Amino acid sequence: MPEPAPASAAKVFGERLPLAERYAEHLVTTGVERGLIGPREAPRIWERHILNCAVVAELIPDAARLVDVGSGAGLPGLPLALARPDLGIVLVEPLSRRVEWLREVIDDLGLPVEVERGRAEEPAVRRRWEGADVVTARAVAPLHRLARWCLPLLRPGGVMVAVKGESAPEEARRDAAAVARLGGGTPRVQRCGGDIVDPPSTVIVVERVPRRRKG
Description:
CATH class: Alpha Beta
Order of helices and strands: HHHHEHEHEHEHEHEE
Strand order of the largest sheet: 3-2-1-4-5-7-6
Number of domains: 1
Largest sheet: 7 strands, mixed
Number of strands: 7
CATH superfamily: Vaccinia Virus protein VP39
CATH topology: Rossmann fold
Mean pLDDT: 95
Radius of gyration: 17 Å
CATH architecture: 3-Layer(aba) Sandwich
Helix content: 25-40%
Structural class: alpha/beta
């Protein structure tokens, strides 16, 4: 069983806290059994995983279409779906065993979240999900590679939100030129949930820059 939800979880999930607790239970039981979460993560499932992802909701506009790339155990997509029922969310995940688990969990929680088996860079996936307002990713790839996969899924003016660690400022500086070549704006580092999680979640935000018309 997971650790009890911290008091701060109620601020994030409100009346949906019981669903978030159910999700935590899935993560530390079948999620561990099927290799989606390491067994050592169970004692810190709330702070390190669920809340770390859910607080990113403060960066996401109302009623946004959101694509979560490389979703794995549903992070950050499912915590965002639980915290923000106004969002339209699809989880993109290439591995069939993870897709099967995600669909089981979504069905159990009764969430209107779709799951796409595939990779963000595949043409069929791009055709189905392009035009998103937000694309999220957590622990998937370096920023320059994420930008290559994620920016084409966004509408002009949409944003990629990459959940990162403490090395985020260095990564943002290192990959800024590559991101620009791929059609992204200047990467900016933001901290989320300072009153919920310690340390706050660190994300890199990149806007898809509209193409300038020639002439």
